[in-house]
Amino acid sequence: MSSSRSVRKLEVAAPVPADIDIANSVEPFHVSEIAKDLNLSPSHYDLYGKYKAKVLLSVLDELERNDDGYYVVVGGITPTPLGEGKSTTTVGLCQALGAYLDRKVVTCLRQPSQGPTFGIKGGAAGGGYSQVIPMDEFNLHLTGDIHAITAANNLLAAAIDTRIFHESTQSDKALFNRLCPPNKEGKRKFSDIMFRRLKKLGITKTQPEDLTPEEVTKFARLDIDPQSITWRRVMDVNDRFLRKITVGQGPEEKGMVRETGFDISVASEIMAVLALTTSLTDMRERLGKMVIGNSKAGDPITADDLGVGGALTVLMKDAINPTLMQTLEGTPVLVHAGPFANIAHGNSSIVADKIALKLVGTGGFVVTEAGFGADIGTEKFMNIKCRYSGLRPQCAVIVATIRALKMHGGGPAVVAGKPLDPAYLNENVPLVEAGCVNLARHIVNTKAYGVNVVVAVNKFSTDTEAEMNAVMHASMVAGAFNAVICTHHAHGGKGAVELGVAVQKACESVNQPLHYLYPLDISIKEKIEAIARSYGASGVEYSEQAEKQIEMYTRQGFSGLPICMAKTQYSFSHNAAEKGAPSGFMLPIRDVRASIGAGFIYPLVGTMSTMPGLPTRPCFYEIDLDTSTGKVVGLS
Amino acid sequence: MSSSRSVRKLEVAAPVPADIDIANSVEPFHVSEIAKDLNLSPSHYDLYGKYKAKVLLSVLDELERNDDGYYVVVGGITPTPLGEGKSTTTVGLCQALGAYLDRKVVTCLRQPSQGPTFGIKGGAAGGGYSQVIPMDEFNLHLTGDIHAITAANNLLAAAIDTRIFHESTQSDKALFNRLCPPNKEGKRKFSDIMFRRLKKLGITKTQPEDLTPEEVTKFARLDIDPQSITWRRVMDVNDRFLRKITVGQGPEEKGMVRETGFDISVASEIMAVLALTTSLTDMRERLGKMVIGNSKAGDPITADDLGVGGALTVLMKDAINPTLMQTLEGTPVLVHAGPFANIAHGNSSIVADKIALKLVGTGGFVVTEAGFGADIGTEKFMNIKCRYSGLRPQCAVIVATIRALKMHGGGPAVVAGKPLDPAYLNENVPLVEAGCVNLARHIVNTKAYGVNVVVAVNKFSTDTEAEMNAVMHASMVAGAFNAVICTHHAHGGKGAVELGVAVQKACESVNQPLHYLYPLDISIKEKIEAIARSYGASGVEYSEQAEKQIEMYTRQGFSGLPICMAKTQYSFSHNAAEKGAPSGFMLPIRDVRASIGAGFIYPLVGTMSTMPGLPTRPCFYEIDLDTSTGKVVGLS
């Protein structure tokens, strides 16, 4: 357990400068130095410039026999719209473990969408003295994974409309002959991918000429029901005008118009596949079995039915390798995958976590963040991600702020872009105490998985000792293993040393197996109801559409999948305005959809926007390149 | 002039194996070896894996005082739909110069669009024993430049529709206040980019509060005429259903629907900007002055008016660095930019050529390919690309095949996917001789620029000596410097040694300055007419729409730009069926458009498709990943 060579300790300034100024004040180590500290040799990674490298998945095979390090997930209480610093705490904790506590540590983070970087939100690399650097490379392009997802997603979309078009203008026989053209010797043959469809149809013949006319029809005519298509196009840009569009209006498309739309790229099922896959072979299978809609007879149509599962895998072959970067204090970070936290599961990739656990080895730490509040992020981490990975966390951190707890205690609404009410700036212990019901429920829910829970109070300069003591007391009463104050935003790793020590003890003293919230072999409704109860709901109400979909997925054989709830993160309930720890409500399920390739069913609790917009004055007004230095300016 | 260390000579097999099998039979050198041969140190480039590196533009400053090598452009005669092997000849010539003639050489190629790779066409890395490797990396993603273009193009598109939307719902004052929000001290200020618009409007005030209400309106309200918008969205996928679409049909867009469409990404003006820019500063200016449409008053609206020129530059900052790869024989290749050859100028980037010329130095060679036939590709290379770069080629190669010459001599139609007529497989010297009128006109036109012309006859196995002699004779009569037979497809560089020697002599003995076909300071119509005459036209007919556009661009001050004709490559004329060397026809100009940021006006001679489609059985049916080895299979 020798000290990493690349770590640095920060000289911090007060007041804390702007994020970009802090990020630019540090000259990053060459990423090969970061890799060397993890005992990675140049054959284990591909460089992408000086500060990014893709760690090759083959490292996993090489380290197969190594023991895993400790596995820590960072979730949060129900947040305000301003965010409570979950990413920042994740980074700060790792800086503490690596640069101050002399532990091997890897931070596993999601790749942010590029869209919001130019919209309202700005970047997502942490903040203050707890950041991933270089910040511009983290927020823009990275190593091209999201671009690969966009390309793959849209190739599949093009294949769908084109196939319907070609089926509409050709006889079964002509279609079949085009799909299996004669080779130079005049002989027709099936391409490899066609055997997947033949197998699905129960046809065991291997020569095109042996198929009966009925088999030719079954094989060649997918007969996609345009109304049933759930596959949409994607773009990594905040383009609200693409939310709902009509395609096919060109004269050559002969009137085959269709209403559809674009989502932002990170909402693509392919992003969820990337996050949940465990190997190249597994990714090939998941991409091939993604369902794009149904045939008119009601059977699911997959990417492999369209002949494109292999091409999608080829487009994604480099994306499966996580990207190595570094924190401000030189500790290693693996950035990989960034699925939506509502319609998908909001966690970074399984492969990054697996590689990281082997790289840190016994006594080391992998800290991974779960998107949204713990009711969604940590729940999905446990029941979807850990279920698919087989990994077992020892400790869950819950990030809390005095600000958010006051809101849950009954404080005035917190609105982004508007000044905070004085209630949030002056001491008010009763308000904090009242709000701790929200924290307590997150602690109880999280502890039920069999992990030790550490509460991290992300301290703001206006927070008082009495307020913080109230939180720590409430945490311990609710069953937390420990609760500590952190100042990593202002002080870097040094501000999270106490958190690091608490996490270490929590990991070392865990003594239960991992309990999932629900088994997979119960019905879709039973699974939904188990999750709803963890929110405090007394029951679930299904719309007619939801009932229909549940019935369909059950009939299609998909009821054994885990559930990925699409619910607001701003309340335990479906109503964002209900703060604290609501209970006794009926959770309404508006619709139920599925990501079959990724491997989950997602019930919609309310309307989820999957394509953000740009405000009147987007962030991009400030962003430019200093062409004399080549540096990015104005990124926040 | 010492031998490069990384070159290898190929062992060739007969008959020539499949392209992918040849590509996979060679283990590429680590790209750092290729870089070292060019005297590039690791500080001069960023690695992107083991076989690709981005050469940093800053190399140009370092080598400023070095002399340039010889500059060779490869064009072709008017091709058949099967292509006559221009890329293959470009690569083969370089393999000959580097691996057999002991010359420093760099091949400069366009980055292919990813769309066609999965459609009909397959990859574009050359063929046979003259290829760029690794072939899959060349054809897919490369180093993300096209993805960066897609992101930048679509950010601008989103900014346009969103701005119109926000202008439609806000008063001038509210709009202005949102655009210049108060900072923490309550003071409003302009962001840097806003001073570009203020300057354009002739407003010299620097404080928002000093603007008069009229100035507030002029500044804040772009008043874009939706009918005038020429900026379309792009995607690097063959998605015909996006050619014509309606956007804005979501309820939140409040009925602000608009008809528009997607082009394939390489048709984006940003691709043309990348190809024609000469520095980061120049790229910033070109991106900012791209015109997306007009205000209702008829004034051009630019990316900088929308506040997004800086963000576009940030998205493109790495794309400006060319990608270093290698040929099968280990000679260096710079891959950079791939603008459409019809609506844009179809040549690889100026910066790659400039860097390459410095890297090879005196006595070395840079060979760059011009898309389409020489009537379009070489013409645009000279009059647009060389005009912006200030570079001067010494030699132009014209690639010819017996097959294409027979077609021009009156042979039956050549159709992709159908067997060749026997006329093309058996000796027919008179047919070849008759077809040489096409070659002769390309020679005369190209020679007029003041370069020496070398004809490269790309030999097929069915070509006879008498046929080839006829071509060589006709070439010399038409004024070629030399004409030689090449067999680089079958033999690699060894098959192009004679071509290499001829090119070297042509470069060494050039004795005229570069003559452009037209000066810039004549009218748009005079320029169009000069180009039309080079096609053999006796005059030009303008549609009403073309007249209107020419008048508008002239009024807006853009008449000094060079002209980029959007014409079929399958004939000198506008009619693809007219082979040989037609003359006396009137060239019809259907419409006239402009890429103001890239820097050219493009008249449309006929309809140009800017979004390809997928066939019934696309290439993707064969493409898959061998998940046990991680290798791509089925790419052709």
Automatic annotation (TrEMBL), chains A, B:
GO cellular component, one term: cytosol
InterPro entries: Formate_THF_ligase, Formate_THF_ligase_CS, P-loop_NTPase
Pfam families xrefs: FTHFS
GO molecular function, one term: formate-tetrahydrofolate ligase activity
GO biological process, one term: methionine metabolic process
E.C. number: 6.3.4.3
Top-tier EC class: ligase
Keyword Nucleotide-binding among record annotations: yes
Pathway assignment: One-carbon metabolism; tetrahydrofolate interconversion
Keywords: ATP-binding, Ligase, Nucleotide-binding, One-carbon metabolism
Reactions catalysed: (6S)-5,6,7,8-tetrahydrofolate + formate + ATP = (6R)-10-formyltetrahydrofolate + ADP + phosphate
Keyword Ligase on entry: yes
HAMAP family: FTHFS
Assembly mode: Homodimer.
Family according to the record: Belongs to the formate--tetrahydrofolate ligase family.
Full protein name: Formate--tetrahydrofolate ligase
Species per Swiss-Prot/TrEMBL record: Hibiscus trionum
